Amino acid sequence: MHSHGEDIVRLSRRALLAGGSLISVVGATLASAGHAAAAENPAAPHDVSPEVRKEMATWVYSLALQAATYAAPIVAMYLLRDSISTGTGAKAAAGQIWKMADISTPTFAEESGYVTPNINVVYGFGFMDLGRQPIILTAPDSHGRYYMIEICDMWTNAFAYPAGAVAGYSGGKFALVGPGWNGTLPAGVQRIDCPTRWIELQPRVHVRNEADLAAAKAVLDGVTVQGLAQYTSDRAPQAVAYDYAAPRINLKVASSQMQFEDPLQFWEIFSAAMNENPPPADEIAAVVPQFKYLGIELGKAWTRSDVNPLALEQMKIASGQIGKMMNDSLSLGAGLVHGWAIPPSNVGMSGTDYFVRAVVAVFGLTANTPIEAIYYSGLMDGNGQPLTGARRYTITFTRPMDYLEPVSPGFWSVTMYDGVTRFTAPNAINRYSLGSDDNLKRAADGSFTLYVQRDNPGADKEANWLPTPSGPFYLVLRNYAPVPQVAAALKNRATFQGPPPVIAVG
Questions:
Q1: For all residues of the chain together, what is the average pLDDT?
Q2: Confidence class of residue 493 from pLDDT cuts 50, 70 and 90?
């Protein structure tokens, strides 16, 4: 009589001698699948040593960590889709756009579950299922107001912008076409081929201040979607009833943090989301097969009971760590200069740079491509210390300031975020950002200083005061519609001139 735990470390002497390497041991062990498979395999009379078992666990953990890095973006999108369109508290049905009633104040940010939201725009969020038919998107003419419509696939690639810095703000009609659809589109509609069955539309319309909100919302209301059948007055395809597993996560923090009650649900969601929205063919051939030792195969549902217990244990550890690990690794994916993370030039369309893709998904889900918007993340002060509301800081901006220079009607802003929730931070004066929309107090040469602290710095400095939470925080300096030379300069981050340091003064 022996336990299931003992089964996973039993191997034949022939397997050990024939392989002569750790990978042979691991492959033979994991290929025997889960508890039941091991129990039915009596031909394993010799235990591996504790040292080999430790090595096996290390290798499997490393594989699980790479798989979690690859999976994090599509899992984060699944969680956002649940919050917006398919979950029990959905804001808008699939095929519709939820249009926020206000900017992303702390209350609205928590309601959306969207990480590190921009406070200077009013958002829309809409998940489109292109499996039944194309979706016709109408983008309005904003008459010179800045707005964008970002379209992301389920792997977080920002693959199209029907409105924004490059496309402009005059609008048009677009057909969003899913993989494999070969029908005929009506005249006057521009076709956009989409990489995955599900996509997300994320319009953002610039809001200068509270008095400007109604005008901004009018532009947002002009962003509409219709199924092709509805648009052409044809018979609509049969409705689909979605039965997606409800994620069990910490709702007090942004969903992209992936704080699951049961970390193994991460893998169930990854498998389901990938099977529904397969990655590109080259990744199917070269990347996904590596994960078979974890029980993950395209086209098959991942079931924890079928996975070897040693692998399952390491998978649970890796998925439980991935959110925090990606947040903590932001400065590795982005060069850290003066405490600011300078973004890599492939943000938004990371290709096979799965690490950058995962970091962006966790820290700033659906971040834009640099030609549309650039984000500088303030993580440390000028001395390399974490930012905290227990201290007071200043940031002094002097010319040249190309890094925050937009092309009209673009804008820039510095926004404050709670380091725990990853949402905007409540404060007594309801001020969450400062930037080009504000009447900042400037010196004669155009320079200015921001005062970053919990308490009011005094009447003479209040116009430039950005309140902090009491605990850890971070900043994001955004430049929407940046001048083209700045986006180009990101390709050489070693010489890139970014924001000035955050200086601790008390």
A1: 91
A2: confident
Residue type for 458, please? G
CA dist., res. 226 & res. 135, Å (int): 6
Residue 276: which residues within 8 A CB-CB, separation 6 or more?
154, 197, 198
- HSE-CB for 89 with a 13 A CA cutoff: 9
Rounded Cα–Cα distance for residues 307 and 303 (Å): 7
What lies within 8 Å, CB to CB, of 150 at 6+ separation is: 158, 161, 164, 201, 202, 203, 204, 366, 368, 372
Which one-letter amino acid corresponds to residue 463?
A
CA gap 292, 315 in Å, rounded: 13
**Whose CA is closest to 226, among 252, 201, 260?**
201
- Residue 18 pLDDT exceeds 60: no
The SS3 of residue 37 is: helix
Helix/strand/coil (H, E, C) string of 291-336?
HHHHCCCCCCCCCHHHCCHHHHHHHHHHHHHHHHHHHHCHHHHCEE
Query: Looking at this protein, which amino acid is placed at residue 395?
Result: I
Tokens encoding 436: 């080009």
For residues 99, 104, 108, 111, the Cα torsion angle rounded to the nearest 10 degrees is: 80
Span 345-383, pLDDT tens digits: 999 999 999 999 999 999 999 999 999 999 999 999 999
Q: What is the CA radius of gyration of the chain?
A: 25
Q: In what order do the strands lie in the sheet with 190-193?
A: 190-193, 172-177, 135-139, 224-227
Quote the CA–CA distance of 266 and 270 in Å, as a whole number: 6
Instruction: For residue 55, report the phi and psi dihedrals to the nearest 5 degrees.
Output: -65, -40
Q: Alpha-carbon distance 19 to 13, whole Å?
A: 10
Q: Give the whole-angstrom CA distance, residue 196 versus residue 179.
A: 6
How many CA atoms lie within 13 Å of 168's alpha carbon, on the beta-carbon side? 5
CB within 8 A of 3, min separation 6: which ones?
none
Strands of the 158-163 sheet, one edge to the other: 98-99, 121-129, 198-206, 147-153, 158-163
Q: Which residues of 106-138 are buried (b: 16+ CB within 10 A; e: fewer)?
A: bebbbbbbbbbbbbbbbbbbbbbbbbbbbbbbb
- % the chain with pLDDT above 90: 84
Cα–Cα distance list, 236 to 176, 183, 191, 317 (Å):
16, 15, 20, 46
Q: What is the pTM of this model?
A: 0.89
Instruction: Enter the tokens of residue 230.
Output: 């509805």
Which DSSP category does 280 fall into?
-
CB neighbour list of residue 437: distance below 8 Å, 6 or more residues apart: 120, 208, 209, 411, 413
Structure letter (DSSP) for residue 264: T
Closest of 254, 503, 229, 244 to residue 383, by C-alpha = 503
